[in-house]
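Key idea: predict the complex, not the pieces.
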Amino acid sequence: MTQLDPRVAMHLSDAAVSVELETPDMTLNIGPQHPSTHGVLRLIAKVDGERVDSVEPVIGYMHRGYEKLTEVRTYAQITALVNRIDWVSGFANEVPFVVAIERLLEIEAPERAQWIRLILTEMTRISSHLLFMSSYPLELGAATPLMYALREREHVMDLIEGATGGRFHPNFNRVGGVKPAAGGGSTQKKVSQDLPAGFLQGTLDAMDKIDAVCDELDELVTGNELIKLRTEGVGIIPADKAIEFGMSGPNLRASGVPFDLRKHEDILPYDQFEFEVPVGGLGDCYDRYVVRLAEVRQAVRIVRQAVGTIPSGPLQAKVPRILKVPPGEIYVRAENPKGEMGYYVVSQGGRIPYRVKIRSASFSNLSVLPWLLQGSLIPDLVAIMGSLDFVLGDVDR
Amino acid sequence: MTDSQSEATHDGAAGDDAAEPDPPGPLDAVGAELAEMVGATNWSAEHGTLRIEVTRERWTESVATLRGRLPFFSWLSAVDWSKETAVGELAADVEELQERFEVLCRLSSVTNADAAIVATTLAKDDAWIDSLVPVAGGAEWHEREAAEMFGIEFRGHPNLAKLYLPDRFEGHPLLKSYPLLAREVKPWPGTVDVENMPSTENTEADRMSAADAANGDAGDEA
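Result:
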């Protein structure tokens, strides 16, 4: 038997010792710049080997102080702010805010404007969910679905851009209706331009493509054994915890709670259309993925019906040129792609709100992380975080 | 000033309508029921927004009771009712205004559209309230935010550290008395619009003069 080189022997003994070392109380810093955080989120994790003992999310890197900024801007200027809260679904952020102001003013947007709002909100939902469909498998190590999902998402983005003039920040809603389409001129003109030519047909064509990509994603991801191994039974959120933490949207429904504000709030005419509310059972990462994919199909269904029934008529109700909102307090919420988005507006009767509280979905959805990640494995951490589908702009506001 | 008076008359008219004996809508029925459940001092259901006011002493208890009916913890925040403002607008009735904090917590149902905002009032020099974390875990971050933004103390909160702001940040930015630094450095171009707005009459002449004024201001700026 040959004698071991003493230096090798020393290393070997080191290795043996390190195997038996106690490993608690190691602090692992993740972020703020981490590819799977959808913005700038920092997690301070206390780990014991591969197991996470506790996690402290550090947020605020994207805090832009929107609630303060609303107190120095007129109502019309604020719509430009609010679509930057959750930049993946900018259009959907604007709707509850303008409806809140409309209700304080006791005016209602014309039917055609409501239909356009609804169509664009659902297209925003499709675009937001397709971004999740592309980024989530990527975070789990599957790069291919991204190509398929983003390719078809581009059709939706093009249509939103065609109608509103903006891909991410449409700033399209006006108190009392929607803006005349891009290049359409002043809202004061009697003959205002409508949606761009070919928008409705283009939307129907795009919906066929979205349906097709859902089938492709089903084949690529939904039944994929590796994806299932990474997500099934991981990051389970029971319904009562989801409710206690104010989790909303697909995250809540994945936990088996069939609650969708589109069925309960009347800010958009969803009662005119048939659609289902997909729910999960267990509330694990896989359920959250499956629910979102099912929601894309339902959104396609709603858009098809809405395009088929869109009424003609004006895009704007008669609104005073200078918006002075009567005193009052109102909270209006809507089912955003990420969950409950709401605005509590306190008006004192001026051109500027006295206070606006912005309730964003991702903030509450993310606040469950310390509870959820406790005791999970480090490899699951990214899978769990990604499944919550948050946007840091929506968390930090 | 005339504008705020006209707003006041509008408000009065709305109040008169509400005083008429209308058959109570579903919201009113829910409001009356919930208000009785928690022994509310006052409640209102204007603009489809149910507000239930309770005393500070009954705050935690009220939220715990209401969560039996409305389990979903939506949000918690505050309003600074203040006579001074470093930026933005004053309250319309600033002379009669009571300086106070209003703490609001929104709860809602997950089976129907029922929802309510629980509200309570805190004196500015005695701004503390019991934490809701023991009755709703979701309150933790919302209370940290309200604490740093308004300087309200949430007693019994497990970790009332700053949430958004840097640890060494001084002041409470959402107070009306807190200046907005950007506006101190450079006035917002929007003030041009705000100060030179023509009357609310939507006539062609006004529009023309508004356009002139806007052009004139733009010229001055340049």
